[in-house]
Amino acid sequence: MSIRRRSSPVVTGKANLGRMGNGHRWRAGSSAAAMVAVLITLGACAPGAAGGGAVGTPGAGEDAAGTTVPGQGAGRAGTPTQSSEPAVHPVTTVVISGDPAVATAVASAEGAWPTVLAERLGQAGAPIAVTTAGEGGGAFVPDHPAASSFVDLVRAEVQHSTQLVVFHDTSTEEAAAGAIEEAAAAAFKATEEAAPDARIVLIVTATESDTREALASAARGAELPVTLVDAVSDGWPASPDQEEFADRLAPHVVELVGALARSGAFE
Prior knowledge:
The chain is an alpha/beta fold. The protein has two domains: 9-45, no CATH class; 91-261, Rossmann fold (3-Layer(aba) Sandwich). 34% of the residues lie in helices and 15% in strands. It contains seven helices and nine strands. It has helices spanning 30-45, 100-104, 113-123, 150-157, 177-194, 209-221, 242-261; strands at residues 4-5, 10-12, 15-17, 26-27, 91-97, 128-134, 164-168, 199-204, 226-230. Residues 1-40, 48-57 and 60-77 have low confidence and may be disordered.
């Protein structure tokens, strides 16, 4: 005797699997077995089943349609790596100075403040590669006709790849303030022509107020950015030795040099 019973339709999503017409009933036996086989087959073909995920759930590395997404999924080739910190490159630096101590040491630069400054900045993660264009008697306005002006030294040493030019004039007592401002402006202009992307550091150790103002005015009028270091306003000693000079200067330039070292401008 065959057994019949009334059953409710089975619904998965919007599809009615195994639903009979109105008034029909489920039949036990071979019909039920066939329905089970159909359900198993459909389940095996559903997206995500082969990957071990839930039915209808994308597997690792697949989008909603089951398509493999490049670079996704553990162990797949093409997986993006974490972005690294910018590379640090020594900042190409030219020091223009009339300091006799710098001029004397220019061949080896040992013991002179540019070398000490490079050591201090390197320890702070802001390295520089220094070329020293020092000449005794060199200045914005030289005292002796045979001495080189800072414009001459810029044209001789500053290259297109130079990132930083540091000026320090120790012979400003004899020249008039107006002549100093004009000569400093010309040196800054020559720097711009040689290295259009460079930055300038101007160290002012003069004690005369009109000379200091003349140099500050030239810095304000420069096309290139100028960092002005006023040693008098900053409380530097009157005659610092080379090491102390570098130690006083380093805090004024370390952030600028660090930014240039990571800029990638000359990669």
